[in-house]
Amino acid sequence: MRVIAGKARRLPLKTLPGSDTRPTTDRIKETLFNILQPEIPDCSFLDLFSGSGAIGIEALSRGAASAVFVEKNPKACSCIRENLTFTKLAENGKLLAMDALQALRSLEGRQVFDCIFMDPPYEKGLERQVLEYLAESTLADEHTLIIAEADLHTDFSYVEEIGYEISRSKEYKTNKHVFLYKRK
Question: What is the pLDDT of residue 125?
Answer without folding.
Answer: 93
